[in-house]
UniProtKB/TrEMBL annotation:
It comes from the Bacteria. Its main location: membrane. The lineage of its organism: Bacteria, Bacillati, Bacillota, Bacilli, Bacillales. It holds the Pfam family MatE. This is MATE family efflux protein.
Amino acid sequence: MSTSSPSEPSSLVQGPIVRTLFFFSLPILLGNVLQSLNGSINAIWVGNFLGETALAATSNVNLLMFLLISSIFGLAMASVILIGQNLGAKRIEEAKKVVGTSIMFFFSLSIIVSILGYVASPIILDWMNTPADAKSMAVTYSQLMFLGTPFLFGFNLVMAILRGSGDSKTPFYFLLLSAVIDIGLNPILIRGIGPIPAMGIAGSAIATFIAQCLSFVLLVMYLYRKKYMLRITKKERHLLRFDWEIIRITIQKGVPMGLNLVVVSLSNLILIHLVNSYGSEATAAFGVASQISNYVQMPAMAVGGAVTSMAAQNIGAGRWDRVSRITWTGVLFNVVLTGIIVVLLHFFNRQALGLFLPSEGKAIELGMNINNITLWSFIIFGIFTVVASVIRASGAVIGPLLVSFTALLFVRNPLAIYLSHAHGFNAIWWSFPLGFAVATTLNLLNYRFGKWKKIRLIDDSTAASVS
């Protein structure tokens, strides 16, 4: 089964699960590759044109922007689950009401976040213990990135709606467009060409802003031209309102999912605060290693996103037999795909780091050690991600949050701090496999013995309240 055209949602409750999951997750995986490749190539431009200090600045800001994306991820995923369950139950009108309310809610939220982020950037970067030599560039970069928040939120919301309705191809095409624009504009705006002045690190942020803006506008225009079934037409403008019952469900389910990524972000901020104390070379090594680990996590994140949409539609349709098979098929996909990437990166460790860092020097040696210890542990992380995605698709969101909170903030970070003080920088990274092992074990226990299958988002009372 392939995904449908954007003129109508695609059913994920029929057809062979292996084939459906593969072809649905593949565009998500390729989209994740594009996003990380986009960030990596931009890091190459910044590192080669502006130096390690600028790279350290963008590494700090990228973690801050991950925190920003975390603030909307959960709410967007709640919309995906609501839309998916309603479509699985063939409640098209209820799905459109979720879309209308989500648009208004996310637009308002994006304006607030944009203003607050712009004003608070210097303070936040101080809290992160950003190296003094990178602080000025980091502030400039972060403030410009925050100005693009409305387009970032809008782009991510529309992609989430499409994936929730069973279309993973269209988001990929427009992610490709965004990446091409961003990658192409970065060197031009950083160094300048012809009448375009050299803007330095500000040019990199402006390139991203332009790419997100154009891609979002063109995506919306495309969906209306193709008469996408969940679009809001002129006759349905009354759906563009704050339906407080839908907002209540979105917040109730979305905030814990968002907090899950906030926990990850907070854990990483604590970690980079620790890393920053070792100087700019250590920060640059960690930043580049994080870029590489993004690629390792891609299969798990792609399969996790796919199983969320698939499980949500099947739960809405009452197809619990398929939900179980979706779970273990997703786990198998993750182990195989992530394992292949880990093996390749271990063979080409220095070469991968050398794309961002000088081939000789302290930073690349530190980065190689980080990769040697942490990369294989992302196979374990992927199992946690896939299983947690299925549990969340039912609307049971507290369990995975508690698991992440415990494994990262009570296991990984305290262990990293202890190892740093006791054995130095190179020992910090053993906290990764131990933290992921705890997370996976706890989540498998929740999947087996938890009450997540009893959660309902669109039972009779809920359906009535949002109709």
